[in-house]
Structures are given as C-alpha cells and as structure tokens.
Specification:
The chain contains 17 helices and 16 strands. With 481 residues, it is α/β, with parallel strands linked by helices.
Amino acid sequence: MNKIKLFSGEQIPMEMHKVKIVQKIQLAPTSKRLEALREAGFNTFLLKNRDVFLDMLTDSGVNAMSDAQQAAMMLADDSYAGSQTFGRLEQKCQEIFGKRHFLPAHQGRACENLLAKVLVRPGSVVITNYHFTTTKAHIVLNGGTVVEAFIPEALQTTSSHPFKGNMDLEKLEAAIAEYGAHRIAFVRMEAGANLIGGQPFSLANLAAVRNICRRHGLVLVLDASLLADNLHFIKEREAECRGMSVREITRGIADLVDVIYFSARKLGCSRGGGICTDRADLFGALRELLPLYEGFLTYGGMSVREMEAIAVGLEETMDEDMISQCPQFTAFMVEELARRGVPVVTPPGGLGCHINAREFLDHVPQEQYPAGALAAALYLISGIRGMERGTMSEARDAEGNEVFADLELLRLAVPRRVYTLSQLTYAVDRITWLYAHRRLVGGLKFVEEPKTLRFFLGRLAPLSDWPERLAEAFERDYAQL
C-alpha cells in the first residue's frame, strides 16, 4: 500500500510519481456553469470541456501517460501491413496473458461488437456477473438476451463484502438449466463490475465459474478493461493471493478464461483495445471481421503511436505502485464522504467514488432520474463533471416503458495519475455542501431521447426552477466565507 503515515497518526495515499507536464484548467463562475448546463441539456456528457474544472466523467482515455509511454510513441512503425509496432504489442499481450492470438481494435466496444457478431444469434443468452451498457447493447442488437447472475451483496450499496463483483454460482447453474447450454452464447465476467461501483471479483470465484463453464462446454469471456483495479483488490483482499505478484495473478486470471478483451482507454492508459484468445476457431472467425469493421489486422483502427503506448502501459500495469493509486485515491474520497454522512458505495471499488443518488436525493423518484439530477447539481456548484450510472443509463423496454436501474449512482471517476489530493479534497467539500442542501435539487425529464444509449446524446430539462435556486444558495453561502 502506497500510504504515508503523518505525525498525527493519519494515513493519506501517496503518489508514486512526479508531475512533469501540466495542463491548465479553469474554474468558471456559477452563472457560466448554469448557462453551460442549459446548453448541454443538463447532460454532463454534452458539456464542453472548457467549462469543466475537474473532469471525473470517466477514466476512459483520460489517464495520464508515463514518460516511457510518450517515448515509445516515437518508435512507431507506420507500415499499413507487417508493422513492427503491431509485433511489439502482440508480443506483450502474449507475454502477459499467455494467449497465442491477438487482434487489435480501436476500443473496447469495438471488441464487443466483433464478439457479439461471432457468438450471438437470435435467441442467444449471455450470462454475466453484471451487465455494462455497450456490452448489453451489442448483444441485444444481435438478437441476444443478457441474464445477470450477481450475488445479493452486489446491490447493497453499504456493505463490507470484499468481492461484490463475484458471480452467483447457483444463479449461473440455474440459468444454464433454464435456457440450455446450446443457447448460451458465452458467459461473461467483468473485471471490476462498472455499474455497481467498480466492484471486483475474486480469483477463487472466477475459477469456480470456469469449472462450471468447462463442465457445460461454454465459452468464458473476460472483459478486462478494469483489470488493473481488480488485480489490486485481489492482492489486497484475497488471502490466498497476497503472496503472489501482480504478474502471477494476471496470468492466473488469464489461464481461466477462453477470451480476454479490453479497452486500452482504461487498461494501458492509452487509446485502443484488443482481443486475446487461444481458441483458433474463435480467432479465425473474429479475424475475418476485423478488416471489415476495424481496419487491417496489424492496426485495427488504432494509431500505431497509441499501440506503442499500450504495449508499455500493459507492462506498467504489472507494477503494484501503478495499479494501487486509483483504488487508494477512491478510498480516500469514499472514507472522507462517509465520515461526513454522505451516502457512498462501500467498500470502495475501483474506477472512482460512487455516490448513492437514490439515498442522496431520496425525494426525487426514479422516473425523474435522480442520478442524472445529482450529476447536474454537482457540476453546477463545483465545476466537477461526473457520470450518471442509473436509470438514464438503461434503455426502455419494447413497449416504451421505463426500465428502472437496480442502483442510482453518480460516478466520480479518478483517472490515473491525473488529479492531486487537494483537488479530491475540493470535490469532497463541494459534495458535502450539496448534501446539506440536497432538498433544493429536483428531477429531470427527457426532451430529446435517443432509442439506443440515450445517456450519451439525450437532452433533458429540469422539472422546476431548482437549478436557479441551487445556484443562488451556493453563491450566498460561499460569498460569506
């Protein structure tokens, strides 16, 4: 653990790097933020970055690169075919994951598209520890259905369970019995279940899932996009793995699954993605689609400079100092907010701090998108951009009815090596103020609602003048300080 003990006895997380390149950010006045919210249709995805102070929307593609990654980008081989850059990335993936075959893709959802087209047919079922928005969309678009087999603790926002991302083995067996193994396209484990707070699974649970899949002849697929955080938690929380190196744990995970895919916008701190497998049949089927959807086999829609950076970033992920920062900074935020009575997801997961919007805004019904309203309210009083992970992130059913999310969360991502402890302390302060004034926040309604992944492009409007009243209260309180 990279923590330092202060003379007071308090422990704080310690950055194991120094900042050598900086980017200036601006904190716009409250009036400007209100104007920006209106222009964005109260959807934080549509805010312009020039109006954002701390961008905690996601860790995807916004993690800081290391000096070694920047240097490697200068070595890139621009050849369309037979690129040495591809060879270096392929070799690194083979070394770390132990899979013979590697296919590049421009990001994680591109990998999902390829896998869905190869494995999913009308009537197919995919069993997962918890769904992710783009994964589910690709499966549904190809005629499949997603069945979740999460453990009961997964939906308990306040818990001490160390591995809330585990798959419920009884639910897995029951789903196989109900649908029949012939209808199961694949079983999917997400390393760090995003939508329930970046919660990890244990190596022991993955091994048990693997045994069930092997017994029924099912393909086991790992979404490794958030693997870095999951590796940290396995090493810290799973007693049997504490003596293992990060590299050993990684190989232990990889050996249990048939397919690994990842978004390098998360894993590797660059931009791109890839699919790794030992299955020659799957590799052959995926390989045929790659030039059609992504580009040639040796770049897959990626810049070769990014590919060089991914190869270095994957190696850096084997460093415990690197993978521990996001979970430790997240834990700092979670613990500070919990101390102030703010409802947060515990235990702290990876990816970022998750606020329980349903409890934070218990007066706002789910049909008025409390997590989306909380995201808008926090931006208004702080300039911090977070992401709604609740009902807005779900899709309506075939009849057009609202599908309510299991959890209503505001995710405040902690990009790796980007923000300082003082900036996180600022975030804690503004969230604390907002919690004290939470009754001022009202709901939202859609005024422009896309049918697919509406949280990306949809526009909303407040159901009252609550944004104006909230802005006035904030200006009044902080003007007195």
